[in-house]
Amino acid sequence: MPTRAFHGQRTNALLSWVAVAIVLAVGGWALLEGLVHETLFAATVVAIALVPAAVLGSKRAALPWEVTVAAVVPLLAATIAPDLWTRQIVLYAGAAALALALTLEVHGLTEVQFERWLAVAFVTMLAAAIAATWATLTWAQDLVAGTSIIASNAEVMWLLIAATAAGLFAGVCFDLYYRGFPGEELVSAPVDGIDEERFAIRSGIDDYPSLEERLPVSATVQWWLVQTLRAGLAAMVAYALLTFDTGTVTNVAPMLAITFIPTLLRRRYGLPFDSGLVLWITLVVTLHAAGSFYIYERSFWWHNVTHPLSATLVGAVGYVVIRSLDELREEIHLPPVLVPGFVVLFVLSFGVFWEIGEFAQDIVADYAGIQMPLAQHGLDDTMTDIVFNTLGAIIVAVWGLPYLTDLTDAVTDRLEEWGGLNR
């Protein structure tokens, strides 16, 4: 491609900075006009565009100009859109260009290495996460200022769908267009001067006490607590069967089955699920099941308790996946110091995908006239789900990872014995 000749040259940097100047001008106008989405979009573009120059300490350090221009196009298009809804759709779809730019920076400025399929997935997750962040900030402003920029749950869901779908498209573009670029050529300045040790600091979570040891009760008490919670779940299922409550059976029975998975994995594959981990998993699913059985319809705050706890389980799964890919795939490398950030991204994007799935079930239920096991309950329900999912992700990323190290090591050992994910 002729444009590839600009990479690493002053021309590329000049074109990129011209695009940033346009963004600043449009963003300043949007701020004066009180246009929330345009202001958020412009601020995000500028912050991302400044990263290469800040890290490499050079004005010539810039993203490939095509990427910067691609990020400017949605902002300019929004200024001529005929109505608020069209502007929102354009800008949320534009989150994909920002996700692509961030992926290029992560790949080119750190030790992170992606396989092609993982790069596509990363761009998609970033686009969903960026859109969720924008939606949360806008929703918060609506609550504080009494505005209605996001008018309904359906509106925010279509915005998230637009961002996620565009993110997937941008990820494919990343794969097709930039596959020939080595990581250090994804920005227009050399990266030889980067102190790689900054990105390779060990996480310091090895040889950490297990959750079983850290809990204030003995392993025996923990075991009995697990059995008590399982009995409670079984009682909920039995009552639902007797009262022909199929919705409760659909929700609670899988929760009961989940509590036995750690035991089965420990016996079958020798995975070190200590009693503390089993208690944590069982408590989380029991609280969720109790909400579905009785409490959700009668108390909104219970919903705000169970979602961050459920997010910690998703974060745990994400951590195991991330560590396993890092250790078993030679083409993938995620430095320990960056792993907590990847865990938060994993949970936040998973929460968006989950909300999209619930929204799709609502559409099917309305069309077919049937009851689905999962449903959304309005804009506030969706947005608080995203907020508390993020809170749970931060909790597990900051405090929970040490308790998963032994389990993750055992999982990677078993996978390596089975072929190491086709290494």
Automatic annotation (TrEMBL):
Origin superkingdom: Archaea
One Pfam family per UniProt: DUF2238
Keywords assigned: Membrane, Transmembrane, Transmembrane helix
Family annotation (InterPro entries): YjdF-like
Transmembrane domains' residue ranges: 12-32, 38-56, 63-82, 88-106, 118-137, 157-178, 248-265, 277-295, 301-322, 334-354, 386-404
Keyword Transmembrane annotated: yes
Name of the protein this chain belongs to: Uncharacterized protein
